[in-house]
Amino acid sequence: MSSVYRSFGMTVPATGRAIAPVDAIAMMKQGKAGNGALLAYGNGRSYGDTCQNTAGGVIDMRTMNRILAFDPGSGVMEAEAGVLLSDVIAHVAPYGFFPPVVPGTQFVTLGGAIANDVHGKNHHRRGTFGCHVLSFSLLRSDGRIHECSANENPHLFAATIGGMGLTGIVLSARFTLMKVPSPDVTENVARFRDLAEFFDLAEAADAANEYAVAWIDQLAGGRASGRGLLMTGNHAGAGSRAATSAGSRLAVPFQPPVNVLNRPFLKLFNAAYRWKKGRASGPQDTTCQSFFFPLDGVRNWNRLYGPKGLFQHQSDVPEEAARRAVPALLAAARAAGQGSFLTVLKRFGGQRSPGLLSFPRPGYTLTLDFPNRGARTRALLDRLDAITVEAGGAVNPYKDARMSADVFEASFPQWRELEALRDPAFLSDFWRRTALKTADRAT
Fold it and tell me: What local confidence, expressed as pLDDT, does residue 250 receive?
């Protein structure tokens, strides 16, 4: 059966053969999985083609969604790979726990969080999601289930965390939750007039808070260039022990024929957001849904970008290069006449992930979202890649749909170690156009 398994960015059509987990498991145990025939698919929240396998089959993991065990004494949970982060939050919140790391959406699967080694607003304190994974069961095409941890099959453990699903199927995983007084967050918002002021504030903000993230008014130029809001937060000392509903009250019911998030709209949105968010005086209590997952409140919000979809570009540049590289990235986008709906700037800390190809490294990460306008947008993204690599940084592969093989190799020179551990039956469109292309050139 053929089904459409597109990424959330919707820039690359992807129709592949759908395979139920039970059938894929049977194929692997019988040794019937061919080279490049398989790739596990979570909930499709990746922006690029790391979750796509147009030349093979896609294993829809969402039916493997059971929480198997949770110990409120230790905060350790065991769950199947298809369980959603929203279900984890709902299960542990009444016990006073919360995931130590959450990305910008709660609608990711556990397997996806591991495969992409997701990070959040508190990397400076907790690192990536992989830092809190204790062990997992990995089924490979040799038909064996490999129990993986830092001590058992450590090479597969490292390759699978951040390994983009290329080492096999994660069946279930054990990971630790964080003890919190409430899932709610007490938030503070501070305006900064330019990037120089942000950089002066960032380290102290990280030291004093569990969470810190900046919103940038990307379209502001001249003396207003780089202005924005620094939002910091800590779990509220008192509040509900139940997480607010993960349901979406609003939705984009159909695909508009054009991009709705055009430049005039973005100028108005940025001005309104800066005024409304920036006028808060003093700490404000907010729900975890509002603080961590604001876009989850609108179902199918990616449809607003129109039928051509959106590209997300996330860069990570070393701390010593950030004061010149981040302004250059923003200036390049403005010069190209491209508007980013959400522009986020965060500081990564020094905690290393156990993952072999984990994206975060000490420095600053800038995320930009652009509507797909074809060659013009791709030219801008190539320019952003060049600025990032020249600064000694990296481009995030988990959110990419078009980076060149050269940019991937410059960002992740250790990719050959993953290739050596990749299960030959597993392959993605991303790996075909980057790593394997580089390998073919070398031979």
Answer: 74
Residue 153, pLDDT score: 98
The DSSP letter of residue 101 is: -
Residues (pLDDT < 70) of the chain are 1-4, 14-16, 239-249, 254, 443
- Strand-pairing partners, residue 69, are 78
In 3D space, the residue among 417, 414, 368, 418 whose CA is nearest the CA of residue 388 turns out to be: 368
- Say whether 322 sits in a helix, a strand or coil: helix
> What per-residue confidence (pLDDT) applies to 361?
96
Which residues have C-beta within 8 Å of that of residue 281, sequence separation ≥ 6?
none
Q: At what angle do helices 375-390 and 319-335 cross, to 10 degrees?
A: 160
Residue 174's nearest CA partner among 41, 81, 106 is 81
Compute the Cα dihedral for 92, 21, 358, 309 and give only its sign.
Answer: negative
What pTM was computed for the model? 0.94
Is 207:152 a contact under the CB 8 Å cutoff?
A: no
Query: Cα(332)–Cα(341) distance, rounded to whole angstroms?
Result: 16
- One-letter amino acid identity for 213? V
pLDDT at 443: 66
Q: Which two tokens stand for residue 71?
A: 């110990």
How far apart CA 329 and CA 341 sit, in angstroms, is: 15
Instruction: Show the tokens assigned to 7.
Output: 């990424």
Judge whether 124 and 154 are in contact, CB under 8 Å: no
Single out the residue of 409, 395, 412 nearest to residue 437, CA to CA. 409
Q: Torsion over CA of 150, 146, 24 and 76, rounded to 10 degrees?
A: -50
